[in-house]
Amino acid sequence: MLTLKSPAKVNLFLRVVGRRADGYHNLASLFQVISLFDVIHFVLNDFDSLTCTDPTIPTDASNLICKAVKLFRQKVGINFGLRVHLEKNIPHQAGLGGGSSNAATTLWALNELLGHPATIDDLLHWSAELGSDVPFFFSHGTAYCTGRGEIVRPLQPPPQKLFWVVKPDFGLSTPHVFQQLQFDKLLQRDPERSLAECLSGNLSLFNDLEEPAFALSPELELMKKELLGSGFSSVVMTGSGSAFMCFGEGKIIPSETTKRFFEVNFVNREVGSWYNPTKTLSQ
Ligand code: C5P
Predict the structure, then answer these.
(1) pLDDT digits over 119-167, tens only?
(2) Residue 24 CA, ligand 1 centroid: distance in Å
(3) Rounded distance from Cα 59 to ligand 1 centre (Å)
(4) What's the pTM?
(5) Of 137, 136, 160, 158, whose CA–CA distance to 148 is shortest?
(6) Residue 253: per-residue pLDDT
(7) Are 177 and 216 within 8 A, CB to CB?
(8) Low-confidence spans in the chain with pLDDT less than 50
(9) Can you say whether the dihedral through the CA atoms of 111, 114, 119, 123 is positive or negative?
(10) DSSP letters along 129-176, please?
(11) Among 27, 178, 183, residue to substitute to test ligand 1 (most atoms within 8 Å of Cβ)
(12) How far is the CA of 77 from the centre of ligand 1 (A)?
């Protein structure tokens, strides 16, 4: 059996730079892996199966883990079955990349279990077929991602930060959030400048998808105001929401809508190994 941690990500900043003919949007975003993990157990087997601790997660062919198994089989041309058990901790529909991370972790696991028929670069490129956020996880945990998210420029991690991730009791659908986007209302920030600021430790946090998410869900905007009011210096949504990153000295007051929150830091993997929580960078 191979057991791996499957980490969440945040988007420290996210600019939407254009609409594409294929229905996607071009982005410029600083992605960072954080210390919030699912745990996945993998065993080679005669047939495929997937079980999960969370009964609300579909375990049929629509799950990105099943899609990753199928993709790997097609690409390497090896016949195998895989038994997978997923311990789910990362909230879904949160902008934390949980499903994408599970898919990337599955590709990594299969490559280990089957004697490395693929390079990490192969895995990164193949994984773009599974979703825009999957290739990022084959960086070392910090990357500037462009295109629809699948063009990954690996970077040195920014200086370490301890912060909170707060997930409301409702999620948001990524396509629905993108559909609400109004380009003429976006601030024309230069993402390369934001990148330079973040890497120097002066986190330049923003998310062009916040306004469309607030249009879909006004409670989310209220929640941001409450979190700012409770002392955090910066509160910004990650990905297409609905979770927020909260930086600074604030206090989270648990409520009906703020039931799930996690104190996290940045995580980077070492060359040749997958993400390992015991190897987080020191504070
Ligand atoms: O690539 P992924 O399957 O994660 O994308 C889900 C949906 O999110 C897409 O169908 C599209 O509606 C939206 N999306 C987008 N632009 C991106 C990424 C996602 O419009 N860069």
Answers:
(1) 999 999 999 999 999 999 999 999 999 999 999 999 999 998 999 999 9
(2) 6
(3) 21
(4) 0.96
(5) 136
(6) 82
(7) yes
(8) 278-283
(9) negative
(10) TT-TTTGGGGSSSEEEEEETTTEEEE-PPPSP-EEEEEE-SS---HHH
(11) 178
(12) 28
CA distances from 42 to 1, 65, 83, 192 (A): 6, 11, 6, 39
Cα–Cα distance for residue pair 207/226, rounded to 1 Å: 18
Whether the CB-CB separation of 164 and 234 falls below 8 Å is answered with no
Is the minimum distance from the CB of 178 to ligand 1 under 6 angstroms? yes
Rounded to 5 degrees, φ, ψ at 199 are -70, -20
pLDDT value of residue 277: 60
Predicted confidence at residue 281, as pLDDT, reads 42
Per the annotation, the verdict on 133 as an active-site residue is: yes
Crossing angle of helices 98-113 and 64-76, rounded to 10°: 40
Q: Is 70 a catalytic residue?
A: no
Return the residue matching tokens 């979770």.
243
Confidence (pLDDT) at 244:
98
Q: Residue 283: what pLDDT? A: 35
